[in-house]
Specification:
Elements lengths: L2 H13 L14 H23 L5 H10 L4 H4 L4 H4 L3 H21 L5 H7 L4 H25 L6 H27 L3 H23 L2
Helix pairs in contact: 2-3, 2-8, 3-8, 6-7, 8-9, 8-10, 9-10
Length: about 210
Amino acid sequence: MNLLKLFQLTEELSSVHRFSTNFLVKPESVLEHTGSVVLFSILIAQELNREFEVDIDYEKLAKKSVLHDIEESKTGDIPRSTKYCDPGVKHHLENYETHAVHSIQADLNLQSDIIDNWKYAKSGFEGLIIKVSDMITVTYKLWYEIDQLSNKSLIPVATESINNYNNIINSIRNFQILANQNDKPEIYASCNYLINICHRGMEINKSLF
């Protein structure tokens, strides 16, 4: 591995700011966000394992959570309003993101599984944990900016985030149906736990506006 290229990737991730179309009192880098997602994912997974004895692939969870936004080192933080404004735009941006990850993989001579762990970071049971953790980190940042730093300009973002929580809850419930069909009660119960975390996150969001 070329350490100088690794340093460059780290610098790029620490230089790209999230919420790129919003004012932040304390800017948050993609690297900071990624660290929070990794931390929350591991802690939630440990709680699920303790409460429901669910089998979690911690290596897969760690890889997926670390890599889930790595393309932003090349693409920057693309606002959702831009990415999802048109199917054609979304398609071209996704192609660019894929090219960016392939470029990172080649530059650092990483194993090829980096591509799949990035592409399917939010698929499967581990992916659900990352989806929830990703959203909770957004709520954390909104709470810190609005509640602790009085940055009221982010209230509309807190409002919009409720829809994102509902979408995640729907994806968890769909996964729950499969768990029930495949007779996996520990996964079914774990999904209820994840849904409960989403509801608690939504309550915090709602308290901000």
